[in-house]
Sequence to fold (64 residues):
Amino acid sequence: MICEGKSVFNHFKDNNSNTDFKWENDCGSFKLNDDTIVIGYSRRFSNIRNKNGLSELIIKHIAK
Fold:
């Protein structure tokens, strides 16, 4: 699951019991209880702030 914007990411994070999440350099990820991976990123006026970091997270979780 991809969350567009940190507030959406925080909504999922805050409404789930999982505390194993990571947010660095304007992007982050965590796993829901049903093993769904949630990836989020910060944006400014629809521009992704850290495209390389987001790409690395997507590759990391797709390659599993």
Notes: The first strand starts at residue 2 and ends at 4. The chain has one domain: 2-62. The chain has a mean pLDDT of 87.
